[in-house]
Amino acid sequence: MQVSMASTQGVGATNEDTVHVSPTAVVVLDGLSAPKDLPMGCIHGTPWFVRQLGTCLINLVGDNDVTLREALRTAIAEVNDLHRESCALDQEAVPASTVVMVRERDDALDYLVLSDNVLVLDLGSEGIRTITDKRVEEVAGEEMLAALQGPTGTPEHAARVSALVTVQRRLRNRPGGYWVAATDPAAADEAITGTVALAQVQQAALLTDGASRLVDSFGALSWAQLLDVLRTEGPAALIAHTREAELDDPIGERWPRFKRSDDATAAYVRIGQPVPLSSGAQRMERGRRTRSSWGTGERSDGHNAVLTPASQEVAAALGVEAGEEVIRRTRVYRDRYGIVAHSTSWIPSEFAQVAPELVSSERLADGTSLDLIARKTGRHAVQRVDETAARIPTAEDTELLELVPGTTEAILVLSSRFLDSEGRPLEFGVDLGAPGRTRVEVAEVTW
Fold first, then answer.
1. How many CB atoms lie within 10 A of CB 167?
2. Nearest to 275 by CA among 250, 242, 299, 259
3. What's the rounded Cα separation, in Å, for the pair 368 and 333?
4. Which pLDDT value is given to residue 193?
5. Half-sphere exposure (CA, 13 Å, Cβ side) for 96?
6. pLDDT, tens digit, for every residue of 321-346?
7. How much is the pTM?
8. For residues 352, 356, 358 and 359, what is the CA-based torsion angle, rounded to 10 degrees?
9. What is the pLDDT of residues 292-303, one digit of tens each?
10. Does the pLDDT value for residue 76 go beyond 90?
11. pLDDT (tens digit, 9 = 90+) per residue, 418-441?
């Protein structure tokens, strides 16, 4: 499980969200704000409560024999014990929090959602599934409509929000109301839980309502677009885009809301280990061993082959004149997370006569192009020259790697030039590695 996360404060005095991560689990909590003019039975306050609850949860869910409901029930009880003697826990006015968490367990992903945090699961061919608990929106309807009337930031608006919270507190954690994590461990039994096969999940997002509002409140993005932002730009960028939208509507005229900006937390999860980027040399060695250039968990598509004039760079690499025809072969390598690399090979056109497969837009069925050249001509690659660079994707890179326009996350550019025993070029290849891909090189060490 790979997790990236960000959390920023809204208009309140402190950030009442929190996120906790372990090697196999993620817990995101959104503390329920308490207006200053309303009583509070706990001397510690909401930020303390969400930190304690999150710490207990991330420790408890590490035991796969404990269900997520059991973990939440136990965590609420443990936090109660931390301030039972100092605080009035039998009152309505106690700290409370929404909860969303996931856990990787064997070949499954468990999830739990309590109240209006959002879990977004990308299930590949089955589409995107969102899980949230909207029961809070089904109560105190009259007060909620009044609290959503702008302009935000005025004393009148603050009074309407306080009136809403007063009614909500009376309906919290009881039948016919809605449920949150507060002082009653039985709230865990009301959480939405489920399990999906790990192999189904390509990516996931855990969001507080302050981070999901570009989709579910503002309608500015789809869930698929939100995941694209998280994947290509990261959680901090998602929150930054949210803040930009909020600033365009500071008083809640276009998008009515309880606060101009709420605390926002986003955790982006990739399950398993994405395929690392292979150099041309690594693909050549793999082809010799396995008769395929694919890495474990990888596949390729978009195979295309044409005769095309050589650019200055390609001509220099292949030892031909600029503009002379060369073979260009392209393909895209993918794994369950998306594109690993866009790969292009340029080959002297003389090989088209002895190996016509090289100018066919079909995947080579028995090894790489270098294997085919060796079989047909007896000329083997005995030397390679590798170069590695990084750059911000160009417009062409963005199109080839199917990135969101404007992506600024760097890509890797791996080039390899292959020569035979007489120093004659056989192939020049360039792989564009998608953002976030790593390159792993293993070599023997001798003393």
1. 16
2. 299
3. 14
4. 97
5. 29
6. 999 999 999 999 988 778 999 999 99
7. 0.67
8. 80
9. 667 667 788 999
10. yes
11. 999 999 999 999 999 998 888 877
Contact 91, 166 (CB under 8 A): no
Helical pair 369-377 and 280-290, crossing angle rounded to 10 deg: 60
Euclidean distance between CA atoms 30 and 97, whole angstroms? 5
Q: Residues 130, 119: contact at Cβ < 8 Å? A: yes
Residue 196's identity, in one-letter code, is V
Three-state DSSP string of 356-400? HHHHCCCCCCCCCHHHHHHHHHCCCCCEEEEEEEEECCCHHHHHH
Burial pattern 130-144, b for ≥16 Cβ within 10 A else e, equals: bbbbebbeebbeebb
Per-residue b or e along 416-426, where b marks 16 or more CB atoms closer than 10 Å to that residue's CB: bbbbbeeeebb
Contact 435, 400 (CB under 8 A): no
For the record, the structure tokens of 323 come out as 């503009």
In this prediction, residues 173-190 reach a mean pLDDT of 92
Minimum mean pLDDT range among 51-55, 102-106, 164-168, 351-355: 164-168
Q: What is the DSSP string of 268-312?
A: EEE-S-PPPBPPHHHHHHHHHHHS--PPTT-EEEEEEEEEEEPPH
Residue 116 bridge partners (DSSP): none
Neighbours of 239 (CB within 10 A): 22
Cβ partners under 8 Å of residue 346, min gap 6: 310, 314, 317, 318, 326, 327, 328, 329, 427, 428, 429
Q: Is the separation of the CB atoms in 322 and 311 below 8 Å?
A: yes
Does the pLDDT value for residue 8 go beyond 90?
yes
Per-residue DSSP letter, 125: G
Instruction: Give CA–CA dist 55/100, Å, rounded.
Output: 14
Average pLDDT over residues 273-295: 68
pLDDT at residue 191, as a whole number = 96
Residue 322 DSSP symbol? T
Which residues, 6+ apart, have CB-to-CB distance to 144 below 8 Å? 137, 164
- Quick one: tokens of 184? 């009653």
Q: How far apart are CA 415 and CA 431, in angstroms?
A: 6
Q: Which amino acid type is present at position 319?
A: G
Q: For the segment 224-241, what is each residue's pLDDT rounded down to a tens digit?
A: 999 999 988 899 999 999
Taking 90 as the threshold, does the pLDDT of residue 359 lie above it? yes
Rounded to an integer, what distance in angstroms lies between the CA atom of residue 392 and that of residue 355?
37
What's the CA dihedral at 389, 390, 396, 400 to 10 degrees? 90
Give the 3-state secondary structure of residue 8.
strand
